Amino acid sequence: MGTRTSLSDWDFQNHHVQSTLSGQQFIGAQTTLIAAGPPLLAQAGFTAGENLATLPGATGLGGAFNNTGTGKVSTIDPAGISAATFAFPLGVCENVGLAQNKQLTRLFEIGSRRSYFIVGRTVSSLSIARTLYDGPNLLRALYAYYPAQFMANAGARKNVATLLKVRETDFVRTRRVAGYTDFFCNLDSDLFDHPFGLLFLFMDSQNQPYGGCYAENAYIQNYQFGISSQANIIGEGCTVQFDQLLPINVGAVNAHEKASSSRSGTRVVA
């Protein structure tokens, strides 16, 4: 039965507004992946609108994400630079919020009650709250793509370094230390004068791809952590401003096609 949209079959006492919805179609935190990567999606060899589910070696969401966070070489070779892992997954994240605000100027005129809207630029930002553990902290993980050999501190661990094999001319050697090993805390370091990117991937409860996006040219605006005698853990967080939110084609199937396949007994696979 299709989605109820007409007044003639609207039955609020016995039916849902959208009768095709099931509990397996909702998107939740447990079916969302957040990972940090290079500033631009194109730097990983991908182009806007490219269906990442059809890239060579694609399984599930595609070869582009097969080895995310493993440190192994990916099944694809974007831009012919023998790319390694595309992005570093951010674990133990408790809260992530993203907002986009478009500038609107409302113009009134003498002699009329009507108004005009002048559209301006879109300003995007996000916030991340994460638990501190014995591993790469939030600032270290967000800059996992930046090669360790170009950081002022040579002690940066290799397990989160050089995720993307790029030309050395793409990076500059930092002068002020951001931190050591897994704990980066000095926001005044010139490392944080360089941008990074954030990947968001969404699945439904049936392990089907729903959508994805990439926050490009992101910069950390502030960083904080809190310590309490009553708490068992230490929380850290940051707010980020970024240039644009680029949609990612993950080969998702629209809800109507999923419903049709479900009724016919077939399983939709991207």
Note down, in words, how this protein is organized.
- The chain is mainly beta.
- The protein has one domain (34-264).
- 6% of the residues lie in helices and 31% in strands.
- It has helices spanning 138-142, 255-264; strands spanning 32-37, 88-89, 93-108, 115-131, 179-180, 183-184, 196-203, 209-226, 235-248.
- The strands form two sheets. Strands 2-1-7-8-9-4-3 form a seven-stranded antiparallel β-sheet. The chain has a two-stranded antiparallel ribbon with strand order 5-6.
- A hairpin with an 8-residue loop joins strand 8 (209-226) and strand 9.
- The longest helix has 10 residues, at 255-264.
- The radius of gyration is 22 Å and the shape is globular.
- Residues 56-64, 66-84, 156-163 and 265-270 have low confidence and may be disordered.
Summarize the structure.
This protein has 270 residues and is mainly beta. The chain has one domain. The chain has helices at residues 138-142, 255-264, and strands spanning 32-37, 88-89, 93-108, 115-131, 179-180, 183-184, 196-203, 209-226, 235-248.
Question: Which consecutive residue ranges, at least 5 long each, have pLDDT under 50?
Answer: 56-64, 66-84, 156-163, 265-270
Total number of helical segments?
Answer: 2
By secondary-structure content and strand pairing, the structural class works out as mainly beta
Q: Radius of gyration, rounded? A: 22 Å
Structurally, how many domains make up the residues? 1
Helix content: under 10%
Major beta-sheet overview: 7 strands, antiparallel
CA-CA gap between termini: 24 Å
Average pLDDT rating = 77
Number of distinct beta strands: 9
Dominant shape:
globular
Widest sheet: strand order?
2-1-7-8-9-4-3
Residue fraction in strands = 25-35%
Order of secondary-structure elements? EEEEHEEEEEH
